[in-house]
Amino acid sequence: MSPKPFYLTTPIYYVNSVPHLGTAYTTIAADALARYRRMTGDDVFFLTGLDEHGQKVAQAADEHGMSPQEWCDSIAPRFLETWELLDISNDDFIRTTQERHKRGVQAFWTKLHDEGYLYKGAYEGWYCVPDETFHAEDQLVDGKCPGCGRDVEFIREENWFFKLSEFAQPLLEFYATREAEGRPFIRPETRRNEVVSFVEGGLKDLSISRTTFSWGVPLPFADNHVTYVWIDALLNYITAVGYGSDDPADAARFERYWPAQVHFVGKDIIRFHCVIWPAMLMAAGLPLPDSVFAHGFLLTKGEKMSKSKGNAVSPAELAARFGVDAYRYYFLRDVQFGADGSISMEAMVQRINGDLANDWGNLCSRLFNMVGKYFDGRVPDANGAGEEEADAAVRAVADSLPARYEAAMTAFDYAGALEATWDLIKATNRYIEESAPWNLAKSDETRARLAAVLYTALEAVRVAALFCAPVMPRTSAEVWRRMSLGDIGAVTDIEAAAKWGQLPSDNPVEKGDPLFPRIDKDAE
Ligand SMILES: [Zn+2]
Which CATH number fits domain 344-497: 3.30.10.20, 3.40.50.1480, 1.10.730.10, 3.40.980.10? Predict the structure, then answer.
């Protein structure tokens, strides 16, 4: 069977910000899914990138005495470095100033222009430059932007409009059809209701061009018009996989990967992704993505994190302090993906010391230690003793893990996937406690039983490492290395790899340093 394509995306991040915990959160979640899907054998294409156009970028560049392109080029490495630091395994990194993107955007609007979905009209409204968003007079709050509270500018200009209003009914039918098919387009459900009632209220045509500045993709059929930055940005999802290119290889790539399985977004940009984006695709006659998943905000002490509130820590700082895997684990385990989640240093330290140092790290180190002590650092042969009830119980938890994990990941429930994995880790810890290998080691008569117990626990660790790998790739690779197993990153059939009993007897096992050093609570 040829591998199934699986295309997933993060939003492209705006170059006027540097990577922060919020963008890292979305990207880590997407990465864990990409890694898991590769381990199930899918042909994954994982895209992230940068949104480099718009008035705000032009202004920021100006303030820094740079051209807009120079400004973008100076910010892009900060994202690339952060993603590398966090072990993000993206297959591509699109920048909207790239030729492939501009070409695709132009092809797209030419198509919609030819199909009669665009018209020229006058636009008046209040514009919030930092948000790159228009607001009607009655939407303003005390004359300020209703979104961010900052000053707005009055803008009146001739724009090109997309007949978005024609798509309200087709969109409602589309949402309902997907619902009926059991594969909802908008996830989670709370977001779905919000979008549906918004569309039910009717849609206004959408201004898609600007003439007051030039830092954008020019509309090919209208002089002095550049594409509105938000619309330009959405198109990255198709231009990155080859849309708009004449090269047959690009066309084949587009054919293979589009439509995407999932767009991960923050809940603040859901209308762009669940209303405007599918309407644009419908107008162009292109297939629609499988789903858009909106995650919540990260809150510290009940407030949305932001630089201005001074409660922002950089991803690099956290990774340096706690380790990359621990960082990735904490955010995916402690915050239910899809809901707002409170994060705190205290909770992070607790997760690291509890789940990682005590449960997982300690299981590996005490077990590897005993193998060193009782079996010269080699996996014992378990065939001398029959399987006892306690062994079968651990095996049963391991056997049920692939299906539970798959179900959770299909629902984008990272916490659930990790919980299922931890059921195996905890069961193995209890098993060791109850089997007390240190007592079995006291007599030659119980040597066969000692071998069986250590083998069972080692096999459980081998399986647990597989399912930790999407979220914590480094430590899982290290656990497999210490057990002289192959490259965990090369696994392409996780279910087959997880089948019980594959750990070769006599494999050298290395004790190594603690996988997750305990964090001193008071020092934090
Ligand atoms: Zn604003």
Answer: 1.10.730.10
